[in-house]
Amino acid sequence: LRARLRTSAADWLWSGLIFTPFRATIAILISISLAILSISCGGGGQELLLGATTSIDDSGLLDELVEAFEDGSGYHVKPIVQGSGQILELARNGELDVTMTHSPSDEEALVDDSYGAERTPFMQNYFELVGPEDDPVGVGNAASIADALRAIAESGSLFVSRGDQSGTHKRERAYWAEAGIEPGGNAWYSESATGQGQTLSLASDRSAYTLVDSSTFATMQDRLNLSLLLRDEQKPNVYSVVRLNSARLTHVNDEAAHAWIEFITGDRAQQIIAQFGVEEYGEALFKALLLN
Amino acid sequence: MDLIWDGVKEAVRLIVTGNGYVYGVLFTSLYVSGVATLIALFVGFGIAAILAFRAPPGRVIVVGAFNAGMALPPVAVGLLVAILLWRSGPLGQLHLLYTPTAIIIAQAVIATPVITALSVAALQSINPRLRLQIAALGASRLQAAVLLFREARFSLLAAVMAGFGAAVSEVGATIMVGGNIKGETRTLTSATVLEVQKGNFETGIAFSIILLTVIFAVVMGVTYVQQRRPPA
Fold first, then answer.
1. Which residues of B touch A16 (CB under 8 A)?
2. pLDDT per residue over B191-205, tens digit each?
3. What is the ipTM of this complex?
4. How far apart are CA B65 and CA B59, in angstroms?
5. Gap between the Cα atoms of A169 and A153, Å rounded
6. Which of A43, A93, A195 shows the shortest C-beta gap to B197?
7. Min CA distance, B188 vs chain A (Å)?
8. How far apart are CA A77 and CA A73, in angstroms?
9. pTM of the full structure
């Protein structure tokens, strides 16, 4: 009896495997996995890994651009949408072919460190300070966003920050530095560490001030109890495309990356950008920078 | 509360109007979590059979590890799988990152400890004398295993449901290895996260309700099998 029970582990594994009701599914399972594997291994050369920041996607612009590009080129785009900070970090690891972000100093650093091959600004919008409609601090009359932030800090009014290393968060930090104030650690300053939409909802809920890009605010304004109080016309929010350096990052799909650069800086994409949102919001959400 | 009610209405509207995007997301969710659960089931039942019947040396440690594995942080699994599947990573040649297969792998890793740990408990709770009796009656190892698994079927099906629940409700790893790509790797959970990030709370609630409905339907199916009287 002992000998009988003391069978090999492999035998038990097998008997576990062919537990009756599931016998037929083994074959199905294996064939499915093989099928998937062969499909996903096939199209490596024609695939473009495009890292894009959330504000391009949230508005719906990214979908239109990707569709137009795929339509003409035969490439298949995989858009990875995250905050600019995460996108540029993935790029440094060679896990993307091109990036579209709005964090100029980080993009320049990417190129300077030779991870990025070229950087081209291709569209822009504006940063806006938004807050409760009655604007208790009166930031609407401030001369600059830095002045407005100083007034918010002095009055101790609530301010919600993205707090996620996104392009918007980086710009917000720059404004605070300009104002000469370190907001971190104050009770009136909170970091949502989430996307732009959630940050706006939080600010709306708490009657707080926050910084946002003009495109996202235009698309979400209807659902918020927030008003546009001050727009920075001096220093726009610039979106740049960076082609990653295939000499340094060996896995980069150079051909696809070049094709995307050509597309996004070309007439067709620039027209799409210039027209985007005109119908729905009465004005374009982004300004195309390379329109002839 | 209005938001939840709006979400319910939105969910019904999305399902009834046959919204292609929603059905695609729903299909992706069921497909990846279904396959992941199947993989976890085979691996989990196999390991559980060895651990419960064979009592290999160090069993306590292994069983303890699987019990702890039930609390494996999905985001940690996602990060690990993502780094392994990176183009520059050891498995980069397979080009699996940002595909449904990548999500299946991550979810299978998450569901396997759940199914294994609960199955070990289920098999160990069988009266040990039954095993001796089955062996004494001259059953082959295969026949014995089938009988013992059948004996524990209530608890084993519960283990499978728990595993499927862990897989289908997972989101952190799913986004990390799948990339949340529309039409390819967007699942009910990652679509919910996206809508919430955009501030579309009622659509987020709608997706959550659809997800809960799906889980309920699947689990009801398995429960029906579990509760039905065995053929005499």
1. 45-50, 145, 149
2. 999 988 887 888 899
3. 0.81
4. 10
5. 17
6. A195
7. 17
8. 10
9. 0.83
